[in-house]
Specification:
Layout lengths: L4 E5 L5 H16 L5 H13 L5 E7 L2 E13 L4 E11 L8 H16 L3 E4 L6 H9 L21
Parallel strand pairs: 4-5
Antiparallel strand pairs: 1-2, 2-3, 3-4
């Protein structure tokens, strides 16, 4: 039986892992190579301003094996915050071992305690394994499509 997982808030000492994992996720899911200096500033920016969100880290036997980022979106329709789950990463050796489920359970519990109105995330349209996992956790596809426009940034993104 695998050792149990511990979920904890990330700290600044986790920044190097978070940067590495975000870069790995971008490569794996979108074949993108991220500018690591911009990524490091982005990760650190969460710690610099807690209104941006927070990271959770999963550990097994004292070793960090995964993370997720929670950010907030105000809903005027519901008069409350949606918590967006982003930047999910689980190290390859720990995949299919309940790491995301444990991270999600902690995020859900914290969201409920904080009075959030719901949890949201986005997923690549072809990532059927992740979609099955999210459905098994009680999430359902919504009827919105996501559009975006990248704007020039002083951050160099």
């Amino acid at each position: 039986m695998p050792e149990s997982l511990t979920i904890r808030p990330a700290t600044r000492s986790d920044v190097s892992h978070l940067v590495d994992w975000n870069a790995a996720m971008a490569r794996e899911t979108e074949a993108k190579s991220l500018d690591r200096a911009v990524l490091a500033r982005g990760v650190t920016g969460v710690f610099d301003d807690p209104r941006r969100g927070f990271y959770l880290v999963a550990e097994r036997a004292g070793v960090a094996v995964g993370c997720l980022l929670v950010t907030f979106e105000w809903s005027d329709w519901r008069c409350g915050d949606f918590w967006w789950i982003q930047s999910v990463y689980v190290v390859p050796d720990a995949r299919r071992g309940g790491v995301f489920r444990a991270l999600y359970a902690e995020a859900r519990e914290q969201a409920r305690a904080a009075g959030a109105v719901g949890l949201r995330l986005y997923v690549e349209t072809e990532n059927h394994r992740a979609q099955r996992t999210y459905a098994e956790l009680g999430m359902a596809p919504c009827h919105y499509l996501m559009y975006e426009e990248a704007l020039p940034s002083a951050q160099g993104a």
